[in-house]
C-alpha cells in the first residue's frame, strides 16, 4: 500500500491509532510533540526544537531523545503506509552531538517488508548534516490487538483507515 501524501490523512491516523504517544502526539504536554508530515516519496518528516529540558551532556540533546525521535519517524512512516507496527529492533548510530538550541529535522522512510516484518530507516539532521541515523525492524500487527481510540473499532473502520 502506498503512503498517503495527505498530511491530514496521517494526522487523522495518528490521532486515532496513536493518540497519546509521548514522542509524536501534538497534544502531549510532557512529551516531544513532534508532528510528522507525509511526502510524495512515501517518507515522513518532522521538526524538533532541542530545548534545554532535553539535555544529556552539557549542550547536547540526550541520546534517548534522539533515539525516540528516530523511532517515531519510522513509526509514523508505517502509519502513513497503513501498516501499524511495533518496534522489534532499533539500531541507532550517533554520528555527532545534537546541539541544544538547534531545530532539527527527522525523516523516516520505508525500505521494504517480508511477512509481518517491515524494515525502515531514519535520520536526524541539522543544517543538512546527518547527526544520527537508525535502522529499524517493525512487527506489523492486527488492529484487534490495539485498543481503539474513542468511538470503538468496527470492521469497516479496520478496512478503510488502517
**Sheet with the most strands, sense and barrel status:** 6 strands, antiparallel
What order do the strands of the largest sheet run in, or round the barrel if closed? 1-2-4-5-6-3
Structural class: alpha+beta
For the terminal residues, how far apart are their CA atoms?
11 Å
Strand content: 25-35%
Report on this model:
- There is one protein chain.
- It is built from three helices and six strands, in the order αββαββββα.
- With 162 residues, it is an alpha+beta fold.
- Strands 1-2-4-5-6-3 form a six-stranded antiparallel sheet.
- Strand 4 (103-114) and strand 5 form a beta hairpin.
- The longest helix has 18 residues, at 63-80.
- The relative contact order is 0.19.
- Residues 1-5 and 148-162 have low confidence and may be disordered.
In short:
The protein is α+β, with helices and mostly antiparallel strands and 162 residues long.
List keywords for this structure.
162 residues; alpha+beta; disordered C terminus
Secondary structure topology:
Layout: H1 7-17, E1 36-38, E2 44-49, H2 63-80, E3 85-94, E4 103-114, E5 117-126, E6 129-140, H3 155-161
Antiparallel strand pairs: 1-2, 2-4, 3-6, 4-5, 5-6
Amino acid at each position: 500500500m502506498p503512503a498517503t501524501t495527505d498530511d491530514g490523512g496521517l494526522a487523522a491516523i495518528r490521532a486515532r491509532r496513536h493518540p497519546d504517544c509521548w514522542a509524536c502526539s501534538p497534544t502531549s504536554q510532557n512529551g516531544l510533540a513532534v508532528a510528522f508530515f507525509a511526502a510524495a516519496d512515501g517518507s515522513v518528516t518532522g521538526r524538533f526544537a532541542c530545548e534545554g529540558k532535553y539535555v544529556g551532556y552539557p549542550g547536547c540533546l540526550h541520546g534517548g531523545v534522539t533515539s525516540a525521535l528516530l523511532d517515531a519517524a519510522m513509526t509514523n512512516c508505517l502509519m502513513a503506509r497503513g501498516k501499524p507496527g511495533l518496534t522489534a529492533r532499533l539500531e541507532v548510530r550517533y554520528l555527532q552531538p545534537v546541539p541544544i538550541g538547534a531545530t532539527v529535522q527527522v525523516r523516516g522512510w520505508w525500505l521494504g517488508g517480508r511477512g509481518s516484518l517491515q524494515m525502515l530507516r531514519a535520520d536526524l539532521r541539522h543544517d543538512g548534516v546527518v547527526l544520527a541515523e537508525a535502522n529499524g525492524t517493525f512487527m506489523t500487527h492486527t488492529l484487534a490487538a490495539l485498543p481503539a481510540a474513542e468511538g470503538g473499532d468496527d470492521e469497516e473502520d479496520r478496512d478503510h483507515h488502517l
